[in-house]
Amino acid sequence: MTAVALVLLMTTSAVSAVAQGTEPGGSGEGDGEINLEAPVERSAELAPWRGSEFGYRNVATVSGMDRSAELTWNPYWAMEFGFKFRWYFDEHWFAGARLDVTREVTEADDTTYAGEAWVQDLLVVGGGSRFVTIPGVGIDVSADVTLTLPTSKLSQARTLYLGLGPNVRFSRGWELGGDWQVGYHVRFNSYLHGATTAERETPLIPTCASSSQGCEAFVNTGVRNTQWRVQHGVDLSYQPLEWLGLSVAFEHIVDWLYPIEADDPRISWENESPTDLQHASAFQAEVTFTPWPALEIGVGYGTISPQLAPDATYYNPFYNRYTTLYLDLRLEIEGLVDQLTEAFEGGAAT
Q: Most exposed: 36, 76, 170, 270, by fewest CB within 10 Å?
């Protein structure tokens, strides 16, 4: 699996949406958990299923459009299908789930067979939207908890049992030539694994079962899993017209890997500085069009990448080999129901 394909696997569910992978910090759990977009915040008069949607995305790497960008040309273009369900119990409190499926159109480096569709992790979320407003400053407080269930092959290879991610968000809106909103969020993630490192389905040495040591050493990949993750970031959105919106967001991600036992006799060399901490960043800019209440079109530019390149230099967080362009078609369930209801009532009246 190439590094580009791995990072884009995280981008599958990660860039934009409520709980949106390679794994930016070297960890694959929590596919689709990077939260670059504000939660749905609408009035209480709207339907309880507001925020639910079917999504179809085409995403491709920018570097893949230029054969000379890297020593080996390896373009990436994938189609992503997703369903996000939300149910509001009242004006503020909700529960929901999200599941995405990815199929690479270009020749994949990481699938078992050509044209294989990858199911991402199932995300189950519950929380409250703008349930508190800080007096005097007009800052709204939202919070949620996301459970990551390992339905993806990547998380299963990392022996993930469950991911738990509480999140809090502060936002402030105002009107100035349109609707503006600025927000800041921070999410803490804890991951429960069966092993501290990833594993292969079958051992590298087929005859290991007959040895006294067993197959454990030949199944383990040595890639350490993430035990804790903290991600925080800012976002800004502007809607000058009812059918047009613009947004930009940036997020910093810190992963704490499972530690290596210092007295392990198998370790013959150690780094001068600890390698238990890994950093990554995510950036996204999007223009959104809403030609009909039931359809939202998003055209965006995004980058989810490790902080350091293989040569120990720093990646440009806004443009690097992981940068993608995408086109989203989102079928909004609330708008679809409203349009069908209006059409039915209009037909009945005639």
A: 270
Question: Would you say how long the chain is, in residues?
Answer: 350
What is the CB neighbour count within 10 angstroms for residue 317? 17
With tokens 């009945």, the residue in question is: 348
Q: What phi, psi does 43 have (nearest 5°)?
A: -75, 160
CA distances from 250 to 16, 34, 35, 216 (A): 11, 10, 10, 40
All residues at 6 or more sequence positions from 105 whose CB lies less than 8 Å from its CB, including other chains: 77, 78, 79
Asked if the model's pLDDT at residue 267 lies above 80, the reply is no
Amino acid identity, position 63? S
Distance CA 58, CA 211 (A): 48
Q: What's the start-to-end Cα distance of the chain, in Å? A: 60
| pLDDT number for residue 43 | 44
Q: Are 54 and 82 in contact (CB under 8 A)?
A: yes
Residue type at 256 in one-letter notation: W
| pLDDT at residue 10, as a whole number | 45
Beta-carbon contacts of 233 under 8 Å, excluding residues fewer than 6 positions away, are 35, 36, 184, 185, 249, 250, 251, 252, 282
What pLDDT score was predicted for residue 89?
A: 96
Nearest C-alpha neighbor of 229 from the set 209, 261, 251, 213: 251
Domain 3-349: give its CATH architecture: Beta Barrel (2.40)
Q: How many CB atoms lie within 10 A of CB 236?
A: 15
Q: What per-residue string of b and e applies to 297-312 under the rule 16 or more CB within 10 Å gives b?
A: ebebbbbbbbbeeeee
- Please compute the mean of the pLDDT values over residues 311-332 and round it to a whole number: 95
The residue type of 292 is: W
Q: Is 77 exposed, middle or buried (0-12, 13-18, 19+ CB in 10 A)?
A: middle
